[in-house]
């Protein structure tokens, strides 16, 4: 099955998104254009020439960033996830809708992947945090909606990643707008 990239302009602090698409759906998303989920960055993978597929991805993301869509409704190709990681990501997709958040510990417990909570769920929460950092389908599988029990938590990409997480949670109404954020669109 062939993979191609769709580049989508965004208002995010990171700039455009790059999405790896296949005949089955979106297989990976990158905020920074880097290699993700086992898919090399720009090397050797062409831009998508299937305009119906690329157009759907661009249109749905544009509507989301404009605040007109709360569900992307794009098909997902789960090929770069397996086992417990896939289970946790699918649980997140099913249980954290637009404008909702879960803590890392809550997601671990709801996924059913972690049996031993004798440490109060700390190990599960930490493991879920690492899984979120390795999420090849960010935005479609909304790891930005997973927060720490005592605050925002982390997000891939260092300080720029936290800016993205704050921006997305503000767009979805979880966080109040700041004076330097003028909303979707």
UniProtKB/TrEMBL annotation:
<keyword id="KW-0234">DNA repair</keyword>
<feature type="domain" description="Methylated-DNA-[protein]-cysteine S-methyltransferase DNA binding">
    <location>
        <begin position="88"/>
        <end position="174"/>
    </location>
</feature>
<dbReference type="InterPro" id="IPR001497">
    <property type="entry name" value="MethylDNA_cys_MeTrfase_AS"/>
</dbReference>
<dbReference type="Pfam" id="PF01035">
    <property type="entry name" value="DNA_binding_1"/>
</dbReference>
<dbReference type="InterPro" id="IPR014048">
    <property type="entry name" value="MethylDNA_cys_MeTrfase_DNA-bd"/>
</dbReference>
<dbReference type="GO" id="GO:0032259">
    <property type="term" value="P:methylation"/>
</dbReference>
<dbReference type="InterPro" id="IPR036631">
    <property type="entry name" value="MGMT_N_sf"/>
</dbReference>
<dbReference type="GO" id="GO:0003908">
    <property type="term" value="F:methylated-DNA-[protein]-cysteine S-methyltransferase activity"/>
</dbReference>
<comment type="similarity">
    <text>Belongs to the MGMT family.</text>
</comment>
<protein>
    <recommendedName>
        <fullName>Methylated-DNA--protein-cysteine methyltransferase</fullName>
        <ecNumber>2.1.1.63</ecNumber>
    </recommendedName>
</protein>
<dbReference type="GO" id="GO:0006281">
    <property type="term" value="P:DNA repair"/>
</dbReference>
<comment type="function">
    <text>Involved in the cellular defense against the biological effects of O6-methylguanine (O6-MeG) and O4-methylthymine (O4-MeT) in DNA. Repairs the methylated nucleobase in DNA by stoichiometrically transferring the methyl group to a cysteine residue in the enzyme. This is a suicide reaction: the enzyme is irreversibly inactivated.</text>
</comment>
<dbReference type="InterPro" id="IPR036217">
    <property type="entry name" value="MethylDNA_cys_MeTrfase_DNAb"/>
</dbReference>
<keyword id="KW-0489">Methyltransferase</keyword>
<keyword id="KW-0808">Transferase</keyword>
<keyword id="KW-0227">DNA damage</keyword>
<dbReference type="InterPro" id="IPR036388">
    <property type="entry name" value="WH-like_DNA-bd_sf"/>
</dbReference>
């Amino acid at each position: 099955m062939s993979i191609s990239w769709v580049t989508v302009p965004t208002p995010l602090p990171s700039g455009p998104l790059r999405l790896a698409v296949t005949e089955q759906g979106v297989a990976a998303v990158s905020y920074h254009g880097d290699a993700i989920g086992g898919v090399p960055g720009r090397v050797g993978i062409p831009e998508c020439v299937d305009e119906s597929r690329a157009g759907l991805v661009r249109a749905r993301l544009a509507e989301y960033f404009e605040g007109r869509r709360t569900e992307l409704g794009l098909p997902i190709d789960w090929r770069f996830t397996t086992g417990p990681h896939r289970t946790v990501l699918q649980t997140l997709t099913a249980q954290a809708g637009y404008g909702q958040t879960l803590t890392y510990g809550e997601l671990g417990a709801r996924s059913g992947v972690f049996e031993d909570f004798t440490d109060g769920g700390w190990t599960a929460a930490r493991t879920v945090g690492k899984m979120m950092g390795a999420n090849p389908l960010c935005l479609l599988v909304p790891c930005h909606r997973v927060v720490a029990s005592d605050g925002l938590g982390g997000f891939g990409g260092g300080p720029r990643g936290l800016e993205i997480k704050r921006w997305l949670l503000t767009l979805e109404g979880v966080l109040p707008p700041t004076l330097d954020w003028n909303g979707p669109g």
